């Protein structure tokens, strides 16, 4: 038999990565394209789904034009994507509004109305009885920040009623892309989870729950059909196949979230095998055999793409985006072309220079501590008003200190994540498979190892992990690969062990980091609170 190939797509907030791989997981080639992010007043974050599609089409066509494999032998495609967003579409799958992203918090007041109130659980802001009902069946609850499909749906209903009324389906990003490929409005058991309206107590038997639908304020008639993850939804639509340059025989596997695909692409498939991803945002996760929730630290075990498993859901709101912010707004015109987004080659050179600059400062950045909460935080504190910045800056602070402390601050927050996850699972990670664009930097790999006190295993081609995971899921959906085979198909490029000489300096920096949050969160809450009518701010 002729070899067969699969396409894996990773659509992040920053852009699209598309890979062509064998059904055994070997990547033959990849292409990337950037997408535009629209940040709006009041905590809005949107993207145009046509920009997503253009990026996917562009990367796929460029990849196919390289003739790395016969197009007729490409058997399946799977798309992983940022999720926790909302795309309102009509019955044909055409979007009716720009997508509201995972970082869009304009529905916060509605989420608080649905999930808050008395009797309240101290320290959480949640209504005790409602939270208990959500957690018992779904494993989690709508975030009070509004940054999930519950808050986003309520925002559309109240602020965009004309869009809401015309909406046939409210889709998350992976579901929108799957519908665009196949015409079917479906959600995997994994991607539906952040609506907090499904009974997730039995893996493989996830279903909508009428009581949870009412609690979450979600209309059942506007939600997609549920399907099992890593299964074939159907063949690609002929017109779409022609547009993308694929054959009409190509099968489409159910789309999945970037976090679930990343675990597969990191090779962390077995229970309690941890992985850390640093992209625009960050997360630290592993698969676990049972549903569990830690509402105080915003950690929950949600249905996984792997049969019979859950995955530990966490999210650090700003990670690599903090490095982009540093380059674009702090380091000045020497960092890159003035006034515009650098092309990919220039951007890579900028990041190489930034790494070299940061490496010239000593571990601990001469006492400067950076807090990366530039858009609030999600785990282990669900806090939309906290903000980032540098602490302990003096006249002797250098550009190198500012640069290194930014890398270290994101790592310090990852240590905070790691503590929460290890407490959640009841065991320490001997190592973490490191993926995402941040894992491409050996400097950052070592900093992560030193700050977290854990061995960091840099996955080969770490920036392609999400797309690799999507390709592996497509191979599983075809029946060409079994789940236990995946770990051996993902290579580890290098291992970084903690340097004992740096332990004390990073323990001290971490204590300072935690103290900064405790002592300033009230100030940030007051400064960034929404002003009330008739009340001076």
Automatic annotation (TrEMBL):
UniProt-listed CDD domains: ASKHA_NBD_FGGY_CvXK-like (cd07805)
Ranges of residues in domain Carbohydrate kinase FGGY C-terminal: 278-478
Classification via InterPro entries: ATPase_NBD (IPR043129), Carb_kinase_FGGY (IPR000577), FGGY_C (IPR018485), FGGY_Carb_Kinase (IPR050406), FGGY_N (IPR018484)
Keywords: Carbohydrate metabolism, Kinase, Transferase, Xylose metabolism
Residues in Carbohydrate kinase FGGY N-terminal domain copies: 5-265
Family: Belongs to the FGGY kinase family.
Protein name from the UniProt record: FGGY-family carbohydrate kinase
Organism: Streptomyces millisiae
């Amino acid at each position: 038999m002729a070899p067969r190939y699969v396409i894996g797509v990773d659509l992040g907030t920053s852009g699209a990565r598309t890979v062509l791989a064998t059904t055994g997981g070997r990547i033959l080639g990849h292409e990337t394209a950037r997408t535009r992010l629209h940040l709006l007043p009041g905590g809005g974050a949107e993207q145009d789904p046509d920009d997503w599609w253009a990026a996917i089409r562009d990367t796929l066509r460029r990849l196919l034009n390289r003739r790395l494999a016969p197009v007729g032998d490409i058997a399946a495609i799977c798309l992983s994507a940022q999720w926790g967003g909302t795309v309102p579409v009509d019955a044909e799958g055409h979007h009716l509004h720009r997508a509201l992203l995972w970082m869009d918090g304009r529905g916060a007041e509605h989420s608080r109305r649905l999930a808050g109130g008395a009797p309240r659980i101290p320290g959480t802001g949640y209504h005790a009885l409602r939270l208990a009902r959500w957690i018992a069946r779904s494993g989690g609850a709508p975030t009070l920040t509004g940054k999930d499909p519950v808050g986003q749906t309520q925002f559309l209903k109240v602020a965009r009623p004309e869009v809401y009324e015309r909406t046939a389906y409210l889709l998350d990003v992976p579901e929108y892309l799957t519908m665009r490929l196949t015409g079917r409005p479906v959600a995997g058991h994994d991607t539906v989870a952040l609506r907090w309206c499904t009974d997730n107590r039995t893996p493989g038997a996830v279903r909508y729950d009428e009581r949870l639908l009412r609690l979450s304020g979600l209309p059942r008639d506007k939600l997609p059909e549920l399907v099992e993850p890593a299964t074939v939804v159907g063949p690609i639509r002929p017109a779409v196949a022609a547009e993308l340059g694929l054959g009409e025989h190509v099968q489409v596997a159910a789309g999945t979230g970037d976090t679930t695909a990343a675990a597969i692409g990191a090779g962390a498939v077995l229970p309690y095998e941890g992985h850390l991803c640093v992209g625009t945002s960050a997360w630290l996760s592993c698969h676990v055999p049972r549903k569990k929730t830690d509402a105080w630290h915003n950690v929950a075990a949600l249905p996984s793409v792997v049969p019979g498993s859950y995955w530990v859901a966490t999210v650090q709101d700003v990670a690599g985006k903090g490095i982009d912010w540093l380059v674009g707004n702090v380091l000045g015109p020497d960092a890159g072309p003035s006034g515009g987004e650098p092309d990919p080659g220039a951007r890579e050179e900028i990041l190489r220079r930034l790494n070299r600059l940061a490496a010239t400062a000593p571990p601990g950045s001469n006492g400067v501590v950076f807090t990366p909460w530039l858009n609030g935080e999600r785990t282990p504190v669900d806090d939309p008003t906290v903000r980032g910045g540098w602490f302990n800056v003096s006249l002797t602070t250098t550009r190198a200190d500012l640069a290194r402390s930014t890398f270290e601050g994101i790592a310090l927050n990852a240590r905070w994540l790691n503590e929460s996850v290890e407490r959640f699972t009841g065991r320490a990670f001997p190592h973490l498979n490191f993926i995402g664009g941040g894992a491409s930097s050996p400097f950052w790999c070592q900093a992560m190892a030193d700050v977290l006190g854990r061995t960091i295993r840099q996955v080969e081609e770490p920036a392609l992990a999400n797309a690799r995971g999507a390709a592996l899921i497509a191979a599983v959906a075809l029946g060409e690969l079994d789940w236990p085979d995946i770990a051996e198909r993902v290579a580890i490029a290098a291992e970084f062990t903690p340097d004992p000489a740096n332990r004390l300096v990073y323990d001290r920096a971490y204590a300072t980091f935690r103290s900064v949050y405790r002592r300033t969160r009230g100030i940030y809450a007051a400064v960034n609170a929404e002003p009330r009518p008739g009340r001076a701010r």
